[in-house]
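Please describe our next protein:
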Amino acid sequence: MTTHGYALNVDLDPAPFTEWITACGLEDAQFTTMERELARAVTVADVRPAAIEAVAEVFGLELEELPAEDGVGLWTQPVHASLAAR
């Protein structure tokens, strides 16, 4: 984890990011998604409960769900697409 949090590449199109990102400085590392690795449809909603539970367990935390403010929270695929188009 970093001060910026962490990301799980669940179901987004990795193509735009392969040109911009060298994961952890590893030139030969390939950008992928959970959906691609599992060879089946996976959504953020599918992954969220397990991810929350894992973070809480690893860091010994008791997490509380808070409502997101407008414009804050998970980015949906259309946001990734609009960023990639820049």
